[in-house]
Design a protein that fits this description.
Number of strands: 9
Helix content: under 10%
Structural class: mainly beta
Order of helices and strands: EEHHEEEEEEE
């Protein structure tokens, strides 16, 4: 995912944790502008790449202004048993700061994107008609 101004990119990596028996996805910030000025040795040393989020992070998207990224994570936060495991987190890119919980939903979120009006999310939901007489309404 390349930033709106084209100077940076977010790179996602996936690594298997044998002890936890699960995949961990991490996010890295790639400084494309700096990469174009580096020699081969500095590029091989990844001098233009820095870790952003280690562990559980995926689906990173730049804000339209390029100051923030939003991403999905099942990292610890204000967990509520009635809410889904995966939530939206935001991280400032142009200033120091930690990732903060933006929104947790009652279902696991799969995709997100920014619009001029804000973030848009989508989810897949399985409804067992025999087990529930409740209606599912999307807003």
């Amino acid at each position: 995912e390349v930033s709106p101004d084209g100077s940076k990119a977010i790179l996602a990596t996936r690594e298997y944790d044998f002890e936890a028996k699960k995949f961990d996805e991490s996010l890295w910030l790639v400084d494309l502008a700096r990469a174009s000025t580096l020699d081969d040795a500095a590029l091989r040393a990844h001098a233009h790449i820095q870790p952003l989020i280690k562990g559980s992070a995926s689906s990173a998207r730049w804000s339209p202004c390029g100051d923030w990224i939003a991403f999905l994570s099942d990292r610890d936060g204000d967990k509520d048993e009635k809410m889904g495991k995966v939530a939206i987190w935001t991280l400032p890119i142009t200033r120091p700061g930690e990732a903060t919980l933006f929104k947790r939903f009652p279902v696991d979120v799969e995709n997100l994107d920014w619009t001029p009006a804000g973030l848009v999310v989508s989810a897949k939901v399985y409804v067992d008609e025999d087990a529930s007489k409740c209606a599912l309404r999307a807003t």
